[in-house]
Design goal:
The protein is α+β, with helices and mostly antiparallel strands. It has a single domain, classed as Amidase signature (AS) enzymes (Alpha-Beta Complex). It is built from 18 helices and 15 strands. It has an eight-stranded mixed β-sheet, sandwiched between helices. The chain has a three-stranded mixed β-sheet with strand order 1-3-2. Strands 4-5 form a two-stranded antiparallel sheet. Helix 5 runs antiparallel to helix 6, helix 8 runs parallel beside helix 9 and helix 13 packs across helix 14. The chain starts with 8 loop residues before the first helix and ends in a 10-residue tail after the last helix.
């Protein structure tokens, strides 16, 4: 079943192509002083989520005005970047009109179109097999943000089942990097990253099961933190994703927005057997504290030993120098785990989860899937999953525990790991797509996740910080990983880096 035309923003953008002539035509009125009422597009683009909520609370502008700006920006630019794939305008206007209150009052929200739900709307998982499937419930994470005042108005693109570090699918097409439209925005939260980088929203929901928050953050010039395993809720339909490797949070332009959103999202979910360590203080307070002198492990070699390109190496050296100027101790190190242990465990778990999802969908449809409903690589992964045994899955879970144990032992000598996010800058579109030969996909996907996936299997918090730009202006992130439960340390360090070397917070010029 194909999504309806009303839910497809690409078609909407074609119909409203005149809007793309310029943002000034959409919001011709000049910016107004705080307290005078009204919101220009220039005002909207200058605000992070924290400032938006503060403005709504003060009465400087309304939640409906923020939503109008988000929808207009989406209409103007989504035909170019293809970041937003499902719109829920009527629901959003109703939410905004209720004068939302809370720490995130009125902030427009994009929800990733992957295993995260808003009751009564489609979640397609980027797959033709799930196109048109209506969710019967709202995910706990989204409920928490909306209870704090956010206004969910649309869903952002994901590749099929989140299986690759780019955001390209046969259902929705390719999401383009706002800084270079020929390149990938990363994946699997590439729709979220492209939307934030393009100024459609200041923050967007994202998930990370192997680098899917941090890789798009690195490619699109954003701050992206993957929390510790079980820090944020996965329910109510389930309580963990990929044995805890997959975690939900957000992509943001500012550190304080990420801290605020995690303050609201984190915490044990009723009924869940899993929980993370309690907070000493809200993350918003942690971001105002100094990190102290940190022992930093500089890891230059990925699990796959893929060579670093020149820009990625320069970004890593730049980050190391910055840390030293801030008083931190940096010394070379290597990951305490090998590629086979990490990727072997991840492969068994993700393929088994894929098979379960497809079987469940076939039961819903009361028919077998059609060959054309899954992409070529997905079909091959599904066939491999059918050959796995219960012992394979149990041993994979044991390997998760071994990776976690080795990583936590490593942090006995260091406070944080600094590494590249990926071995190369954002690749051209097509390089990681699920339509290519299986061997090419496997080689490219494992190379892309060679630095990030360790923290997913081990469960550690990890963040991409946008500290570097190439000569051509393309963002390159730096990856920082800490021990389990140490998001507070990462927020302190991120805020220190943000103050010392502020990154561009404006939207890409499209």
């Amino acid at each position: 079943m194909k999504p309806s035309k009303a839910d497809n923003p690409t078609r909407r953008s074609v119909l409203c192509g005149a809007l793309a002539a310029g943002v000034s035509a959409l919001f011709p009125r000049p910016a107004r002083a705080a307290g005078s009422g009204g919101l220009s597009m220039a005002d909207y683009l200058a605000l992070d989520a924290t400032a938006m909520a503060e403005g709504v609370t003060r009465g400087d502008f309304s939640a409906s005005e923020l939503l109008d700006a988000a929808l207009a920006r989406c209409d103007a630019l989504n035909g170019t970047v293809n970041a937003v794939v499902l719109r829920h305008d009527e629901r959003a206007r109703t939410l905004a009109a209720t004068s939302p209150a809370g720490a995130l009052a009125g902030v427009p929200l994009l929800v990733k179109d992957l295993n995260t739900h808003i009751a009564g709307t489609v979640t397609s998982n980027g797959s033709r097999l799930f196109a048109g499937r209506i969710s019967p419930l709202t995910s706990t994470l989204i409920e928490r943000w909306e209870q704090a005042g956010m206004v969910g108005f649309a869903k952002s693109a994901s590749p099929e089942f989140g299986l690759t570090p780019t955001t390209e699918s046969q259902l929705w097409g390719a999401t383009r990097n706002p800084w270079d439209l020929a390149r990938s925005a990363g994946g699997s939260s590439g729709g979220a990253a492209a939307a934030v980088a393009a100024g459609i929203v200041p923050v967007a929901h994202a998930t990370d099961g192997g680098g899917s928050i941090r890789i798009p953050a690195a490619h699109c010039g954003l701050f992206g933190l993957k929390p510790s395993r079980y820090r944020t809720p996965q329910g109510p339909g389930r309580f963990e994703g990929w044995f805890g490797a997959s975690v939900g949070h957000a992509l943001t332009r500012s550190v304080r927005d990420s801290a605020l959103m995690l303050d609201i999202a984190q915490g044990h979910e009723p009924g869940s057997p899993y929980w993370a360590s309690p907070l000493a203080r809200p993350y918003r307070e942690e971001a105002r504290r100094q990190p102290g002198r940190l022992r930093v492990a500089l890891v230059e070699e990925s699990l796959t030993r893929a060579p670093l390109d020149a820009d990625t190496r320069a970004a890593l050296q730049n980050a190391a120098r910055l840390l030293e100027t801030l008083g931190h101790h940096v010394e070379p190190a290597v990951f305490p785990v090998d590629a086979q242990l990490v990727f072997g465990a991840q492969g068994v778990v993700t393929r088994t989860a894929l098979r379960t999802a497809v079987l469940d969908r076939e039961r819903e449809l009361a028919r077998p899937m059609g060959k054309e409903e899954l992409e070529p690589v997905t079909r091959e992964l599904l066939a491999w999953a059918a050959s796995l045994s219960a012992e394979d899955l149990f041993r994979a879970r044991q390997n998760f525990e071994e990776v976690s144990r080795k990583m936590e032992g490593f942090f006995g000598g260091f406070d944080v790991i600094l590494s590249p996010v990926t071995s190369t800058i954002a690749p051209p579109l097509g390089a990681l797509a699920l339509t290519q030969p299986m061997d090419d996909y496997t080689r490219a996907a494992t190379a892309a996740a060679g630095f990030t996936v360790v923290a997913n299997i081990g469960g550690q918090p990890s963040m991409s910080v946008p500290l570097y730009r190439t000569a051509g202006g393309l963002p390159v992130g730096s990856l920082f990983t800490a021990r389990l439960g140490a998001e507070a340390l990462l927020f302190r360090l991120a805020a220190q880096l943000e103050r010392a070397a502020p990154w561009p917070t404006g939207s890409a010029r499209l």
